[in-house]
Write a structure and sequence with these properties.
Elements (H helix, E strand, L loop, with lengths): L1 E2 H8 L4 H9 L3 E3 L2 E2 L6 E2 L5 E3 L2 E2 L7 E6 L27 E2 L7 E8 L2 H8 L7 E8 L4 H9 L1 E3 L2 E3 L3 E8 L4 E8 L6 H8 L4 E9 L2 E2 L8 E3 L2 H14 L1
Parallel strand pairs: 9-15
Antiparallel strand pairs: 1-4, 2-3, 2-5, 5-6, 7-9, 7-17, 8-9, 10-14, 10-15, 11-12, 13-14, 15-16
Helix pairs in contact: 1-2
Length: 240
């Protein structure tokens, strides 16, 4: 017997948090009866229907995608802009793990495993997210140290684990900085550098944990191997 929201998330239908919302809102039926209690446990033989759709076990799929600029990190867009899912041809209910801004490129995980996605995104996982940021202006040691000591954004303190100047272009007055964070707050990297007076011109996520897109062109993707999934779980457990 397992909790209903966990079973829904494991099926790939949606994330666990969204599954909880569906249950509370009376959108889930178990064996013909509406269930609203989050603690409800179900057996493998139970018949589960979500918003009129019968829940079927779905094979888990995990992809590493090199997100291009000018693409929305979403399964759909009300303005009909291109989304990351436009690059995938599948009948599975895939969705991105977390978000990258419209103009941010690089590593993005795409899956139908809601439980796996939630664990990756949870603050306790402390998975390294490495970004390379091109900044307006020549950043100095004072600004870098201020970031290392902790920056307050949206009333939260953020403590990057690494901030390193990679290159500076005196003629163009720009800097290239490597920064590693564990969180995935909205516009986090841009807000960090804005706070010290160096706006981000260009941003790429180079790696997420043990995954990088060095062998993928922009817009390309590949399956994440079972070994890589196991390594991600190890990193999460190690940091827990």
């Amino acid at each position: 017997m397992e909790r209903l929201q966990k079973v829904i998330a494991h099926s790939g239908f949606t994330s666990r948090r969204k599954a909880e919302e569906l249950i509370v809102n009376g959108k889930v039926m178990v064996n013909g009866e509406i269930v609203r209690e989050l603690g409800t446990k179900v057996a493998p033989s139970d018949d589960i229907v979500i918003d009129g759709i019968k829940l079927e076990a779905e094979e888990k799929e995990y992809y590493l995608f090199n997100k291009p600029r000018g693409v929305i990190t979403s399964t759909s867009d009300e303005k009909n802009r291109k989304t990351v899912m436009d690059f995938f041809e599948t009948n599975k209910r895939l969705y991105p793990v977390g978000r990258l801004d419209y103009d941010t490129t690089g590593v993005l995980i795409i899956t139908n495993d809601g439980d796996f996605a939630n664990k990756l995104l949870h603050p306790s996982s402390k998975i390294d997210r490495l970004y390379i940021a091109k900044l307006e202006g020549i950043i100095d040691g004072k600004a870098i140290n201020k970031i290392k000591e902790g920056i307050k954004i949206d009333n939260k303190m953020v403590y990057p684990t690494r901030v390193k100047l990679k290159k500076k272009d005196l003629a163009k007055k720009t800097s290239m900085v490597e920064i590693v964070v564990h969180e995935g707050y909205n516009h986090e990297i841009k807000k960090i550098f804005d706070a010290v007076g160096f706006p981000v011109i260009k941003l790429k996520r180079e790696s997420f944990g043990n995954l990088n897109v060095k062998n993928l062109k922009s817009g390309e993707y590949r399956r994440i191997t079972p070994k890589e999934i196991k390594q991600l779980y190890y990193l999460m457990k190690k940091n827990d």
